[in-house]
Design brief:
By secondary structure, the chain is mainly alpha-helical. The chain has one domain. It is built from 15 helices and 2 strands. It has helices at about 5-10, 35-40, 45-50, 55-80, 85-100, 105-115, 130, 135-140, 160-170, 170-190, 200-220, 245-250, 255-260, 275-285, 300, and strands spanning about 85, 290. A two-stranded antiparallel sheet has the order 1-2.
Length: about 300
């Protein structure tokens, strides 16, 4: 069991775990996950801060930008190498994803790759079918055994020092975003009084509310997308397509499609399947920011019509 001091230091330096840390245990150390709890509790400050249009719009924009960094880069790029990009763009979106408070791209992608190798089997990190909704939704990443980054799963990106830096100091980006929101709210409240906002209001809406909604929208793909929806493809797992979750997560809700063929840059396989993440990636490709977007081969996309049998 880690000492209290070690757990607090680990809030800022994820590599700072003492020799007593048990990385095989499912134990949840309350002190270690306290920042996650505090972020949720801080949402209640909205009853003191109220709302303004500028604070609300900031929350929405930061939700969309950070969700795209998670869906487009943490997931489709870092986890599945579904397209290519330059090192500067790679780092910018790694930083934006990190600002979502879902730890580093190396940690996120490594656990996700492990999930795909073991989906809905006893080795799966977060199967709702085997371990229940709450474990798959959020308790899994609080457990000691899932705290460290599975570097053996992400060797291809662990060669970049800047990504290792984000992996070690994974609280730096969200804390920096919080400071920027406090500062911008203070400046707006002081010099643009007609906007009716202030430092705390901007922090509560732009960081707390936006981040908590982003958390749970993302988490539904691990939990609800393996429980509710339709199955176009007869995959070995319980993945499902869910149009509502696709709206919340900019296209990630087409989860059965994704588990059928994970290597594609698009998850909405057909024109009627909304996939905002893919549309943004297409725009970025036109601008030369990304390239090599991997398509869905027709033999995979129409496999359900051919009554493909999984062996």
């Amino acid at each position: 069991m880690q000492s209290s001091l070690s757990k607090i230091v680990a809030w800022f330096d994820s590599y700072a775990v003492d020799a007593s840390f048990d990385e095989t245990s499912s134990r949840i150390e309350l002190l270690r996950v306290l920042p996650f709890i505090i972020i949720h509790l801080s949402v209640l400050l909205v009853f003191w801060t109220g709302v303004s249009w500028v604070a609300f719009i900031t929350a929405v924009v930061l939700y969309i930008v950070r969700m795209f960094a998670i869906t487009g880069f943490y997931h489709r790029y870092f986890s599945h190498r579904a397209f290519k990009t330059s090192r500067p763009v790679q780092f910018i979106f790694a930083l934006l994803g990190n600002a979502a408070g879902q730890r580093s791209p190396l940690w996120w992608a490594a656990h996700h790759r492990h999930h795909h190798k073991n989906t809905d089997t006893p080795e799966d990190t977060h199967s709702p079918v085997l371990y229940g909704f709450w474990w798959s939704h959020l308790l899994w990443f609080m457990a000691n055994r899932n705290y460290k980054t599975r570097l053996n799963e992400i060797k291809d990106y662990a060669v970049y020092p800047e990504l290792i830096f984000l992996d070690r100091f994974d609280s730096l980006a969200p804390l920096s975003l919080l400071v920027l929101l406090l500062l911008s709210g203070w400046l707006l409240g002081r010099y643009f009084t007609g906007l009716h906002t202030n430092a705390l209001q901007m922090a509560v809406w732009g960081f707390s509310i936006s981040t908590v909604v982003l958390y749970h929208a993302t988490f539904t793909i691990n939990s609800l997308s393996h429980m509710f929806g339709r199955r176009r493809y007869d995959t070995h797992d319980h993945s499902r397509n869910n149009w509502f979750l696709a709206i919340l997560t900019l296209g990630e809700g087409w989860h059965n499609n994704h588990h059928h063929y994970a290597g594609s840059a698009r998850q909405g396989f057909f024109w009627w399947e909304y996939d905002l993440t893919f549309y943004i990636l297409k725009l970025m490709a036109l601008l030369g920011l990304v390239y090599g977007l991997k398509p869905v081969p027709d033999r995979k996309r129409f496999a359900h019509e051919q009554r493909l049998v999984y062996e």
